[in-house]
Write a structure and sequence with these properties.
About 15% of the residues are buried. The termini are far apart. The protein has two domains: about 30 residues; about 100 residues, no CATH class. By secondary structure, it is α/β, with parallel strands linked by helices. Strands 7-1-4-3-2-6-5-8 form an eight-stranded mixed beta sheet, with no helix packed on it.
Length: about 150
Amino acid sequence: MSESTTEVLVGGAVLAVAIGFLIYAGQATGFSPAKSSDYPLIASFRSGEGISVGTDVRLAGVKIGTISQMALNAQTYRADVTLSMKQGILIPDDSAVVVASEGLLGGNFVEIYPGASLDNFTSGDEIEDTQGAVSLVSLLMKFVSGKDE
């Protein structure tokens, strides 16, 4: 085998590994377009701090969707978020959506606390019971200052 054939084979192998890594990274981070079998739900948060497009949506610790869109609503000054939910997962229409943290150094995710209603959200419905992330800095400031607000 000549040097040029070896270089071509090694270059091809490196290219194949790079493409495989990009595909794996895209799937692991949720950076893939919403599947046609997903359905959207809308939620409006006072603060969208800690979440972004691609953030996991979980129910009982299991990933059931991702955030597909996030924008500022100019009339309400709230963060409007579109949740792309897996088809077949029925969410009661009195459920709550909370921005939760995986720990002190972990990332944030959106947690759904299911309600007890017999009716479920349908595609495009808005979840009204929302709660943004608790700011660790504001909690520490309250603790340090000793004020109860």
